[in-house]
Amino acid sequence: MNDSILKAARRRPTTHTPIWLMRQAGRYMSVYRAVRERHGFLQMVKAPEVAAEVTMQPIEAFGMDAAIIFADILPPLEGLGLRLTFEKGEGPVIHNPISSPADIEALQPYNAEETSGYTLEALRIVKRELGDRGALYGFSGAPFTLASYAIEGGGSREYRRTKRLMYSDPTAWHALMTRLSDMVAEYLVAQIHAGADIVQIFDSWAGALAPNDYREYVLPHVQHAITRFRAAFEGEAPPVVYFGTDMNGMLPLLRETGADVLGLDWRINLDDGWAQYGHDVAIQGNLDPMLLHGPWPMIERRAREILERAGGRPGHIFNVGHGILTETPEDNVRRLVEFVQGYRP
């Protein structure tokens, strides 16, 4: 079995540096676009057979060391009573955003099987199809990022409503974050039971915070989600990855999340980031995804530099520093995977 991802997550020696790429199943692939022409995005997520097909596309094409289930961080919020659609040109829209403590109190109990059963079934399908070719990632949004979407009602640049609630009513804020961290833990546990080998928590928006605000308003809830997740398993729990962008000014704080693997975006050298995290955690990253639009010699040089900065130390999972972008040449993805898997210090 190709268990290189799981070994790396535990900082155990591997025969090669394992690689997978965030958003590796997506619009840059022609086979994905062909499926997308027949289905809306949310329809794809909620159709297990389609989600499984899309999940496997990059594995069949490029042979990454892990698959990540095709899903989105926001649909679990529907289990709390929030109404979600994906609008063309706008992205996700929550039509009844949280605007008061009463809205928080009115949130419904989350049940993973009832709300997210389609993703759990997709995981079961992929687990059978993937076999021993690599690890299977499940994932969830982090409490802060989910809270921000739920409050803002969609994307945001300034997070005004989110920060206003956080600063002006800490009691309501922590009540919401507790609800969300419990949901995250339950969702991730359910994904493991459905076939995932490892889980990742995406905190896409936490980089908008000052370090002291992260420590006070966010960190305890990430810790709670990870602790509750681990408590659901006897013995050694499956590995947890924590990833956010624009967070290089608070790396020692992220170490306190308790995650087994910590992500890095491309805005810091990998060895510098790993030193700040501490070498007793594994690291994931950190090629600039825009580089995959460039010429192959430059991609190879930058990938080699990242691998050299890792220094052959056990615990490095190669990845991009954020998701693959649209119009990325597929041949560059193929060559990157082959290069990283074939690299030896």
Question: If you had to describe this structure to a student in words, what would you say it looks like?
Answer:
The chain is of the alpha/beta class and 345 residues long. Helices cover 47% and strands 12% of the residues. The protein has one domain: TIM Barrel, CATH 3.20.20.210. The protein contains 14 helices and nine strands. The strands form two sheets. A seven-stranded parallel beta sheet has the order 1-4-5-6-7-8-9. The chain has a two-stranded antiparallel sheet with strand order 2-3. Helix 7 packs across helix 9 and helix 8 (160-168) crosses helix 9 (170-194). 48% of the residues are buried. The model has no long low-confidence stretch (mean pLDDT 97).
Q: Ends: how far apart?
A: 23 Å
- Poorly predicted runs are none
Total domains: 1
| Class inferred from helices and paired strands | alpha/beta
CATH C-level class: Alpha Beta
Number of strands: 9
CATH architecture: Alpha-Beta Barrel
The percent range for helix content is 40-55%
Please report the number of helical segments.
14
Which of globular, elongated, flat, extended, rod-shaped describes the shape? globular
How would a textbook summarize the main sheet? 7 strands, parallel
In the CATH hierarchy, the third-tier topology is known as: TIM Barrel
Order of helices and strands: HHHHEEEHHEHHHEHEHEHEHEH
Q: Biggest sheet, strands in spatial order?
A: 1-4-5-6-7-8-9
